[in-house]
């Protein structure tokens, strides 16, 4: 920490020992800005994917659906038998038959609002919410098969599992991208630092001749690159957050695409990106400078 | 202070000198003469650890120069003030900043202010303090180089052709400054091919004159 404080407070005299290098300075700021911008977007993507994965994995895991065969004459008896089974099943927290209005709402996107539900043989749906321990899936299915022939228990695993997996992958990919951005920035800064050191070879020789230690010379470069990378990253991160905020917002249940954004602890992410960029620049420049100075006589 | 013991050095295959020995005792004053290209600059660079002897031993303040690490070299150079043949300034800094540079890089920049004023006047550059090195004349630059060489109050002062591109009067002034430093107890080594200058100074200072020629170092006497 003290190293970074010294770096920010600095020694203005020492700083002047190395002449300002216009081109590499601007490029470093620019690269850090672009990288931070991309990192914020990748972070938003990763966080959103993570939220979706968690929601699908946890919330939906507790919900399943029972579908009763569409036989109008036995509908009431089947529903009673099914509810009976469900109510006596350990692990089932709640079982509730969907009302005709709810069933109509489910079908509306496909058939429009005027569907005469009563006159059609529509299967009755029962929503089942498991308690935290869950219930014995196979046992319940077997009992239902005996009591209510033709009933289908759907725990959503079939369609949920690949989606949860995909969202999980997406989250992982977001992190991989962020790490790759960090590594790319380290490489770019290393190149820029080498260019700056090469351009200042004569300056470095004079500094060595008057008794400067390598660490003193390295520090002059490290300080510059750290401040530039940090400054560029602040600008990039601000623009990145702006871009994320400009994306269309939806309600929380609105799904993945409208769920991009930062919430709560997620805001820490864009805040730590600039300091992280500065830390990456610090170590990349320091390593480049000390190595190069050792090679120079 | 500085001892060369059976030292040899050459660039590539070409050996400049071998079996060369030299002792600079504390408070001594040496001239190093010899034709251009004899290896005077090379010999001086060995003395401030800018070059490493191919064979033999260079001892700086009792330490084997070959065993100094990079920080050790830096620390040793703080005890040796050098006037380089080509001055070696930082052109983006002012003359006063250049003169104070050894203090700055040693982390003692704050100490510069008082001494610096005095030093600038001592070398007659009070008016040029804020100018950049390229704006100065050759003689002014060499005086600035001398000021930079002494600002750390080093024990040894090495000057490589300090009167290279200045007129007679200025070279007398510069040498007077070096003699003054020697009277203050500093060890002085000056490389020059200017015999006239040496003759003019012989009476002022108890100096030894060494001659480097054809790879050998000899005590000069007869030709003076
Ligand atoms: N860095 C170098 N690389 C190759 N040859 C050099 C180098 N420096 C000096 N020389 C050669 O070594 C010889 C001695 O040079 P130098 O020590 O500068 O002599 P002096 O200072 O006596 O004029 C010269 O022939 C010069 O060309
Ligand atoms: Mg020379």
Radius of gyration of chain A: 31 Å
Strand tally of chain B: 10
Task: State the major sheet of chain B.
Answer: 6 strands, mixed
Task: Just give the CATH class of the largest domain in chain B.
Answer: Alpha Beta
Question: How would a textbook summarize the main sheet of chain A?
Answer: 4 strands, antiparallel
| Net shape of chain B | globular
Q: What gross morphology of chain A would you assign?
A: rod-shaped
* Strand portion of chain B: 25-35%
The DSSP helix count of chain B reads: 7
- Contiguous helical run count of chain A: 10
Compact summary:
Chain A is an alpha+beta fold. In chain A, 67% of the residues lie in helices and 7% in strands.
Write the layout of secondary structure elements.
The complex is a heterodimer of chains A (297) and B (224).
Chain A: H1 2-9, H2 12-16, H3 22-58, E1 63-68, H4 75-87, E2 92-97, H5 100-111, E3 124-130, H6 137-147, E4 152-154, H7 157-199, H8 201-209, H9 214-246, H10 268-295
Antiparallel strand pairs in A: 1-3, 1-4, 2-3
Chain B: E1 2-11, E2 14-24, E3 29-33, H1 40-47, E4 55-60, E5 63-64, H2 70-77, E6 80-83, H3 95-105, H4 112-122, H5 138-150, E7 156-160, H6 168-183, E8 187-191, H7 195-202, E9 207-213, E10 216-219
Parallel strand pairs in B: 3-8, 3-9, 6-7, 7-8
Antiparallel strand pairs in B: 1-2, 1-4, 4-5, 9-10
Helix pairs in contact in B: 3-5
Protein architecture, described:
The complex is a heterodimer of chains A (297) and B (224). By secondary structure, chain A is of the alpha+beta class. Helix content of chain A is 67%, strand content 7%. Chain A has helices at residues 2-9, 12-16, 22-58, 75-87, 100-111, 137-147, 157-199, 201-209, 214-246, 268-295, and strands at 63-68, 92-97, 124-130, 152-154. Chain A has a 4-stranded antiparallel sheet, covered by helices on one side. Chain B has 224 residues and is α/β, with parallel strands linked by helices. Chain B folds into 2 domains: 1-79 and 155-224, P-loop containing nucleotide triphosphate hydrolases (Rossmann fold, 3-Layer(aba) Sandwich); 85-153. Helix content of chain B is 33%, strand content 26%. Chain B has 7 helices and 10 strands. Chain B has helices at 40-47, 70-77, 95-105, 112-122, 138-150, 168-183, 195-202; strands at 2-11, 14-24, 29-33, 55-60, 63-64, 80-83, 156-160, 187-191, 207-213, 216-219. Chain B has a 6-stranded mixed sheet, with helices on both faces. In chain B, strand 7 (156-160), helix 6 (168-183) and strand 8 (187-191) form a beta-alpha-beta unit. In chain B, helix 3 (95-105) runs parallel beside helix 5. The A-B interface holds A 11, 13-14, 16-17, 19, 203, 205-214, 216, 293-294 and B 50, 70-71, 73-75, 77-78, 82, 84, 88-90, 92-93, 97, 101-102, 104-107, 109, 148, 152. Adenosine-5'-diphosphate is lined by residues 11, 16, 34, 36-42 of chain B.
